[in-house]
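Below sits our specimen:

——
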Amino acid sequence: MSLRDAGPPIALVVIFAVFAALSPQFRSVANVQNIMDAAAVLAVVTCGITFVLMMGSIDLSAAGVMGASALAVALLVENNRNGNDLGLLGIALAVLLAAGLGALSGLALVLLKVPSFMTTLGVSAIGLGVATLMFSGVQPNISDEMLEGWATGRFLGFSGLAWIALGCVLVGWLIQRYTRLGRYAYAIGGAEEVLALSGVKVAPFKVAVFTLAGAFYGLGGVMVTSQLGAGLVQAGKGYDFAAITAAVVGGTLLTGGRGGVLHSAVGVLLITVLTNGLVQIGVSPYWQGGVQGLIVVAAVAAAVIPQRRRNQVVK
């Protein structure tokens, strides 16, 4: 591991130590559990967006995709709106819907040759539209004990959502490390032209990455529904920017070719610890967004310094 890769973990330890010294409440076991629970959904969403960022693309569809999956799962499991009670099958169908929206982003990118931030922004609007249609002016409240148990049940002190997030990070790392999809995502971000010239058909892998990202967003939407006990159109509001922030802070480059799921997971913890610590020491919530923005700018600047010195250009 290079010093550049070690930076975010060191920063996480330092920030945790500083807040622990400033606030006794921050270093309590209960607060550590709260931090892990608060990081769960963001970690799952960040797993998805990390693969897109590794390709050098950007994905702004998380909010809409999560909204669609949140409403879908709320209407497919036991709820107050209809007689459905599909349980795990309902969850799987909601995640499948989200994966389909992710595939739509990828297909629009490779077929229409439109920049990814535009295609994914359009898919986000589609997802929000689908969610609004399913909402139909009446909030669906879930009564499925299994799904509610994700948020309320605990094992070894942590909620089911935290364990699901840990599983997603592990699965994401395995895909990144041991599958062709993960290796090609790196290669596309590092030198797509070289990969294409070597005979690899890049387009299917781009669609596959966006599909995988959509599935992660969909699971994130299901997790939010478990937390709230209801399906909301705005279930994914703010998670797109937060996930990009966490990935970049963790060391995943916006230009692609560097970083990964474990890097982004560290970024999620760093952002969550920072947010929690600012609250514990009494900093106004109005300042927290500004602090996160400054951290993103600093992280991006630090990451591109070697490239800027080598290329002597700013795009």
Remarks:
- The longest strand covers residues 154-155.
- Strands lie at 154-155, 158-159.
